[in-house]
Amino acid sequence: MNEQANKHDILIRSREYIEICGVETVVSFDEESVCLESVMGELLIEGEELNVGTLDTDKGVVKLTGKINGIYYNTSTPKPQKGFFGRLMG
Questions:
Q1: CA 32 to centroid of chain Cα atoms
Q2: CA 51, CA 66: separation in Å to the nearest integer?
Q3: Domain ranges in the chain?
Q4: If one looks up domain 3-89 in CATH, what number appears?
Q5: For the whole prediction, is pTM greater than 0.70?
Q6: pLDDT 10s digit of each residue in the chain, 90 long?
């Protein structure tokens, strides 16, 4: 990826257009949600009638149109698994 792709920006216009920079992969998408892996973590965009206008993972840019209802980052990290003795001792 180039230097531009390491930068993470989100531009929203009138809740009808969104441009996201710093995208590594598109995990899934349909008309109601788009899930992306960005340089800042997993990103979920929810809306109505969402359409992917541009998908350029080489440059790390995704452009969507439709009604944007929400943008969420997944900040949860899995808890380390305790071994047998860790569970036994509490």
A1: 14
A2: 6
A3: 3-89
A4: 2.60.40.2000
A5: yes
A6: 445 547 899 999 999 999 999 999 999 999 999 999 999 999 999 999 999 988 897 899 999 999 999 999 986 655 555 565 555 555
